[in-house]
């Protein structure tokens, strides 16, 4: 029986906009926060354009949209955290093909990890609730290190922890942050078109591959 050679040893995944569509829950929490602060709600489609740089930036963008002063952040940020924790798993879903592809990659012997700008406290409950935590050797949230994506440090830290080479690592994400971080880390990168990239085509960031569906990974990750 022939052995299929793997082009990569490690595959890193972004979370929001790559594995899961978390905008409904984030929008609910943002709007509850805005109401508590005395502002009008915003459409979910608007919140979708704010996602991708972590919770602090999401709250800052919401407050700026509302015309609030920076001083309100100290009150608004904890409020957002409370509301998001309360609705974190309500109606949460993976994108089509994610569960099956992760299962195949894990069975084939690829090491898998999550590198996200999402606060760490939210990552494990999401992965466990969706039944996919066991596929990953580690997950890094946005507050695990001083730097977040697009800085390469989180990606390189994952490689260091798993003792695997960046040159043999593939990053899979949906935003320019993922592409910039991967390139700076010396990794190849897949850009997914269905996620959150501030309304801009992910192809503009020039990832190595662009896929419309998560299962497109099957074409470059055999086994």
Which key phrases capture this entry?
223 residues, alpha/beta, Rossmann fold, DNA polymerase, domain 1, 6-stranded parallel sheet, 6 strands
Describe what this molecule looks like in 3D.
It is a single chain. This protein is α/β, with parallel strands linked by helices. Helix content is 39%, strand content 11%. The chain is built from eight helices and six strands; from the N terminus they run E-H-H-H-H-H-E-H-E-H-E-H-E-E. The model has no long low-confidence stretch (mean pLDDT 96).
Topology:
Blueprint: E1 10-13, H1 23-36, H2 44-48, H3 55-66, H4 73-87, H5 98-108, E2 111-115, H6 120-129, E3 138-140, H7 153-162, E4 169-173, H8 176-185, E5 188-192, E6 209-211
Parallel strand pairs: 1-2, 1-4, 2-3, 4-5, 5-6
Largest sheet data: 6 strands, parallel
CATH superfamily of the largest domain: HAD superfamily/HAD-like
Question: How would you describe the shape?
Answer: elongated
Amino- and carboxy-terminal Cα gap: 13 Å
CATH class of the largest domain: Alpha Beta
Q: Helix count, per DSSP?
A: 8
Strand arrangement in the largest pleated sheet: 3-2-1-4-5-6
Structural class: alpha/beta
Q: Which runs of at least 5 residues are low in confidence (pLDDT < 50)?
A: none
Question: From the alpha-carbon coordinates, what is the Rg to the nearest angstrom?
Answer: 18 Å
What name does CATH use for the topology of the largest domain?
Answer: Rossmann fold
Tell me what portion of residues adopts beta-strand conformation: 5-15%
Order of SSEs, N→C? EHHHHHEHEHEHEE
Number of strands: 6
State the helicity in percent bands.
25-40%
Number of domains: 2
Question: What's the CATH architecture of the largest domain?
Answer: 3-Layer(aba) Sandwich
The overall pLDDT, averaged over residues, is 96
Function: Specifically catalyzes the dephosphorylation of 2-phosphoglycolate. Is involved in the dissimilation of the intracellular 2-phosphoglycolate formed during the DNA repair of 3'-phosphoglycolate ends, a major class of DNA lesions induced by oxidative stress.
Pathway: Organic acid metabolism; glycolate biosynthesis; glycolate from 2-phosphoglycolate: step 1/1
Family: Belongs to the HAD-like hydrolase superfamily. CbbY/CbbZ/Gph/YieH family.
GO cellular component, one term: cytosol
